[in-house]
Amino acid sequence: MRAERLVALLFTLQSRRSATVAELAAAMEVSERTVHRDLGALREWGVPVWTEPGRHGGVRLVDGWRSRLDGLTTREAVALLTLGTPRALAELGLGTAVSAAHAKVAATLPAQVREQAQQLAERFHLDTPGWFRREEESEELVTLARAVWSEHRVRARYRRGEDEVERVLGPLGLVLKAGTWYLAAQAGTDVRTYRVARMAQVEELDEPFERPPGFDLAQWWARSSAEFERSLQRVAVRVRLSPRGLRVLPRVLDADVARAGLAAAAAPASDGWTEVELGLEEPEIAAGQLLPLGADVEVVGPPEVRAAFVELLEAMLARHR
């Protein structure tokens, strides 16, 4: 988008004392003609750009002039204007900070960029929770966020079924997954995951803890969630699917499970049905997961999954007689 490119050009000029049009074109990956047009646009915005002729000349900003956006990338500047104050940040107690940053950027950037950001906000919206479920709310989230930032231990009461256990934890980070907040925390020598909505009471302690060297929350979460998903896939279930069943399978099951099964599937049989092997959970759960496929699935094995599937169908039929 042009506004984004113009801000990038402004930042490039600020980072260099002088640059030729050819150098700017190479840095921006555009033509020299485009650079000339963009320089004219910056002048129209009131940016004091001038061209110094001669062998050692080039394009430069007037000495001493700088925008007030040093340190922001182009996408960051435009994204901040588009962002507003997401509910997730407000829940962490950061809503006011985001609003203040938004106001500062909006007051600094040219009107064209502000207008473009407004258009983006009107056309794109991120809604993270899945359908038919609400975001989980927790009164303890702000306390946990403060403890994560200050690297202080917390004492938490955590619900497990009908019981509560008390734990002293070293909070390493918070993750929002499909509307649900999770805490990654040190528990003894291990790093474990806790669902924030199950924390009945959290108290920040005046006791610092040491983060594991090199701990990366995003990488840890990717590994942890992948291991959790694999731990649930205990049964290799063989099914036959109609052509329609093949198409809707990724919408019925976890997309990764469906893709893995479809990628390894054999060619369709003479009746057009395809046998697929899927990594699913225990028999009763697997049967329930396959039920939405209706008449487009036949459970081949193992026998306990087929029996659980038939039992579900018979119970449904009995209720509708």
Automatic annotation (TrEMBL):
<dbReference type="InterPro" id="IPR026881">
    <property type="entry name" value="WYL_dom"/>
</dbReference>
<dbReference type="InterPro" id="IPR036390">
    <property type="entry name" value="WH_DNA-bd_sf"/>
</dbReference>
<dbReference type="InterPro" id="IPR018356">
    <property type="entry name" value="Tscrpt_reg_HTH_DeoR_CS"/>
</dbReference>
<dbReference type="InterPro" id="IPR001034">
    <property type="entry name" value="DeoR_HTH"/>
</dbReference>
<dbReference type="InterPro" id="IPR036388">
    <property type="entry name" value="WH-like_DNA-bd_sf"/>
</dbReference>
<dbReference type="InterPro" id="IPR057727">
    <property type="entry name" value="WCX_dom"/>
</dbReference>
<dbReference type="InterPro" id="IPR051534">
    <property type="entry name" value="CBASS_pafABC_assoc_protein"/>
</dbReference>
<dbReference type="Pfam" id="PF25583">
    <property type="entry name" value="WCX"/>
</dbReference>
<keyword id="KW-0805">Transcription regulation</keyword>
<dbReference type="Pfam" id="PF08279">
    <property type="entry name" value="HTH_11"/>
</dbReference>
<dbReference type="Pfam" id="PF13280">
    <property type="entry name" value="WYL"/>
</dbReference>
<keyword id="KW-0238">DNA-binding</keyword>
<protein>
    <submittedName>
        <fullName>WYL domain-containing protein</fullName>
    </submittedName>
</protein>
<keyword id="KW-0804">Transcription</keyword>
<dbReference type="InterPro" id="IPR028349">
    <property type="entry name" value="PafC-like"/>
</dbReference>
<feature type="domain" description="HTH deoR-type">
    <location>
        <begin position="2"/>
        <end position="61"/>
    </location>
</feature>
<dbReference type="InterPro" id="IPR013196">
    <property type="entry name" value="HTH_11"/>
</dbReference>
